[in-house]
Design a protein that fits this description.
86% of the residues lie in helices and 0% in strands. It is mainly α and 99 residues long. This is Branched-chain amino acid:cation transporter, LIVCS family.
Length: 99
Amino acid sequence: MKDHEIINIGKYIFGLCFALGNICLFGYLITKIDDFAYHGFLLLVFGTALNLFVALGLLIYGLVHESKSDACLKAIGILMINIPVAILYAVIGLNLDGL
């Protein structure tokens, strides 16, 4: 696998989870439909598992193919941007009762 393909894996998974999180959060904030909040919680659970699974796979791939370890670590770094975003969205979601 080429370096840019490895980095694109991180970008695609990040973008997917980020976009779905935005849809769930802002969908609930705008419409107040509880299904958005419910699916946002499910996204938090399954998105975390997906991100960890991909990060672990990239880490193992980088260890096996040492020439690709820099690209794998960059892709993992991109994936890890989702962590503070997910925490922020979870805090916002949990504090919506006061709004």
